[in-house]
């Protein structure tokens, strides 16, 4: 692929990421919360019980940023911090029913967010599957290249 086309492709992903971020920020502000709250609540839907460190890693944020956001989620009654039954020293985060209901109201089926995303992803199912396949291929290639780069200490091969 031509170098300029590769750059154009990378920049298109960057523009998409910035637009999605702006959408989430607008939606969160409409519902009197921060975008990180929606991100963390979404992750807690998928990971019923998770440590703060794991949640921060999944979200791609620092542990301190995740901790501050989780404090607010706990204050709002959307998340509980509980002691692990296996290791009493370990704190586990658990999504409460109120948090799941809030997230569904904001981002669930028939929400304003859902309506917008339905329009954004105006693809046929085969197109969507093909796009996912291309994205997964790029992710795999990128992970491989990063591993090689780190293994060689950045020395060009």
**CATH level 1 name of the largest domain:** Mainly Alpha
What's the order of the H and E elements?
Answer: HHEHHEEHHH
What is the level-2 CATH architecture name of the largest domain?
Answer: Orthogonal Bundle
Structural class comes to mainly alpha
Helix content: 55-70%
Into which percentage range does the β-strand content fall?
Answer: 5-15%
Strand count: 3
Q: What is the CATH topology assignment of the largest domain?
A: Arc Repressor Mutant, subunit A
Trace the largest sheet across and list its strands.
1-3-2
* Total domains: 2
Biggest β-sheet strands, sense, barrel: 3 strands, antiparallel
Q: Report the radius of gyration as a whole number of Å.
A: 19 Å
Any idea what the CATH superfamily of the largest domain is called? Winged helix-like DNA-binding domain superfamily/Winged helix DNA-binding domain
User: What is the end-to-end distance?
Assistant: 20 Å
Which stretches of 5+ consecutive residues score pLDDT under 50?
none
DSSP summary: helix tally: 7
Mean pLDDT: 92
Q: Globular, elongated, flat, extended or rod-shaped: what is the shape?
A: globular
């Amino acid at each position: 692929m031509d170098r300029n086309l590769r750059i154009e492709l990378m920049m298109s992903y960057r523009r998409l990421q910035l637009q999605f971020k702006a959408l989430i920020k607008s939606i969160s502000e409409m519902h009197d919360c921060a975008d990180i709250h929606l991100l963390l609540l979404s992750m807690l839907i998928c990971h019923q019980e998770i440590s703060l460190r794991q949640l921060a890693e999944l979200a791609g944020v620092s542990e301190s940023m995740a901790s501050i956001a989780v404090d607010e989620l706990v204050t709002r009654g959307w998340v509980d911090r509980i002691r692990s039954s296996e290791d009493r020293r370990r704190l586990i985060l658990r999504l409460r029913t109120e948090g799941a209901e809030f997230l569904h109201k904001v981002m669930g089926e028939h929400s304003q967010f859902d309506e917008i995303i339905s329009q954004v992803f105006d693809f046929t199912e085969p197109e969507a599957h093909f796009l996912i396949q291309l994205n997964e291929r790029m992710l795999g290639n990128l992970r491989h290249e990063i591993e090689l780069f780190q293994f060689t200490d950045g020395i060009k091969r």
